[in-house]
Request: fold
Amino acid sequence: MPHGTFARFIWPSFLAMILFIALPIVSVAMQSFFVEHEQVMREVENCGPFTCTTVLQVDVEATEALKADAPLGRYNGLGTYTNRGHLAFDEVSEIWAASESFGGFIAGVYNLPFYKALFFTLAYTFVVTPLVIVLGLLIALGVNRLPKVTKGPTIFASLLPMIVTPLIGGLILFWMVDADGIIGATLQIIFDDPDLSLKASAPLTWIMLMVYGVWHSTPFAFVVFYAGLQTVPTDTLEAAKIDGASRFQQVRYVIVPYMMPLLVFITLMQLMDNFRVLEPIVSFSAEAKARSLSWIIYNDLSGQDKLFGSAAATSMLTIFGVAILLTPVLIKTWRDFNRRAV
Amino acid sequence: MASTASKSPRLLTWFTTSMIIFWLMIAIGPFVWTVWGSFKVQGDFFSKADWRNAIYGFYTLSETGGSFTGNGYYGAWIQEEFWRNVLNTTIVVVCTVIISLTLGTLGGYALARSGYRYAFWLLIAALVFRAMPHITLVSGYLLPFFEWNIWGRLSTTIVVLVAINQPFTLWMLHSFFLNIPKDMDESAMVDGCTRFQAFWHVIIPVMWPGVITTGLFSFLLAYNDFAITSMLLSSENQTMVPKIASFLTQIREQGNVMFAVSAVVSAMVPLFFLVLFFQRQIVSGLTAGAVKG
Reply:
């Protein structure tokens, strides 16, 4: 297709992506160098019946005027990145100096808000993704063995956790594990502990969120693997069987290698989606025990005073994280592409 | 063909069947439980004392005189005016799907037929854009949108959702277009069609399955979105999902959990029917990206 025709077909879509995905990233980068204006203070004389005192008061008008004048705020350079709420260089070096063991250092750093969120996000991503892949493959293998009549309804039911709105799916599970809900109350009876609450302890909250993540994403892996299973060449499988491969060996040495591209695809999608985890934390009201990077940005932006600078700095760091996650994939694509070109 | 080699030991059959049954209970149980419970009063929905109350509706019977009650739905839809949010969601979702499919088919067709290096790199760029967490983009939008005074409107949200949908839509439609033989549009062009006429009169008629599948996923993305709709819409323009999120804060103050439960069930119903009618398309769509791309 000639360049001109290509351009004529692609421009609306291209323009939309430039305007609303590429430029916002530039806008985020800009905003991250600025912070909110300080409030303009004014001395006011307060006269009671006996004495007069001067107090400092916020000059609302002047502050508003300043905000309208320079909506970005005042220039702060890399100050937002290095402050306590983000990379916290000063605090980290203090902790490094003060702590005697490496474990103590990690524990100290873990108490800083950004690192705490980063830690949760990474833990969530790298626990949920492998579990989703393993469970998805197991369910796909199981469903593949079912009699034909039951396959359709099984797939229908399996799709629901993935299709449902994440916030809604989270809420449904949350109400069930609530101390008064069916699962929560049952757990209390099983462990014979009437005060047991999944919300009150940090490890249980983490487990709950990860269980939600697995519940929500397993159908995706299942469907992709299931479709892949339909295309596994029967000759190769038969040959393996004749050579005496056990069932496990068939799966391990024939089916899994054959589905490797699918596995890479699922891993990539899951890494992207799990890294942005936000909704379950909102619907489980888990912010006291578990915060993700997305959640801190959401929190900065949804307050009464919108902390654009802080949110933008966290966003830039998050985008940096995504870039690191994607690098292996991009390098592989680059190599494949060059090999094909040669 | 069932040869002796593919016959399975009974133990394995037993194991896989019970695993699938267990999975089905986990997958669908929470939905059944919540839908059933939404017709009860709060005392039954959260039935700590005896879980059977949730099934038979012990408190529902004593409080309302019947085993089922629509009070939650009345409260959500009429009292809290949830129907407004349903209307907003309908507007947003329909517009988003139509616009993103229009842009996406044009772009996806160009990418599938170009053959030049830059088409490949555009697809890679789209993949990188697809990986951007939505909330980071929102923090880029918010300040400019406030400044230009376009924050809070449905139209702004629609445009943003369309743009965010594009990377995914392009990838999916591109892989569907690759399945359509090049000869079709080329022979149409030999017969005197322009490129656009060939696209419109020859390719699109055979592309409908792909367009419908992609449309389903655009629908899901717009319908299920939380990060963008909750940050970019003013409270009177809220769609269903942010409204449900704001019910959560209300619950803490007033304690009407059943409103939120009914709203959640109401928002689930369209998705349920979507899977019921389009199961095949959803499955083919999920695998289209994987197998070919």
